[in-house]
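Q: Got a minute? One more chain.
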Amino acid sequence: MVYNANLGELSAAPLKREIEALFSLPAILEVDSNAAAWGEHRYGAGQDRSRMMMLTLGTGVGGGVVCDGVLQRFAGGCAGDMGHLIVEPGGRRCNCGARGCLEALIGSDGLSERAGGRDVRAVIEAAHAGEREALAVMAETGRLLGLGLASLAHIFAPQLIIIGGGIATAGDHLLAPARGSFLAECAPFFSAGVEVRQALLGNAAGMIGVADIANRAGAGVPGAV
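A: Always. Here it is, folded:
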């Protein structure tokens, strides 16, 4: 691992070497959001698109991009740290040290703060139950998500956007306002025909994806890792 704002104590740690020594087995390291994106591309919501982008929403906000069936790896083994796109200049401070990052605003800490300190899972359950306050919190979270997606779409030009992670279990309470914000803020050329879908594989997406990456690497599939 080179760098992770939420796992600073592991930055520069020789994880691959340590894991191989511990288990006496060969190991690979993969970015968790890469693994989730690959899992959804191969076996989940993204099977019908060759170019897709996925964001995972939980403690942090991660992302992965697949283009022509290949994971994009041009910044630290992935398509950059998309969760640290700044969507509110001078806004809430992020663990990375910047202010107004997408992660700071719609990750679990930001969402909880917006809900008056309530647990994120409780907010999502309340939204499903129709509670007005919880619905308002999810609508604002979705608005901010859509704003981030609009900026990212101008860079990656996806055919499909998938939203996963624990916060995505809010379903359309999150995704409907996100779609509206995305379409309102994104240039028509980059939003036309782009669908924003909820992930299908849930918390298993990363494990399925990294298993497939390891299997394909062992089989010598070019561009798989």
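A: The radius of gyration is 17 Å.
Q: Perfect, thanks.
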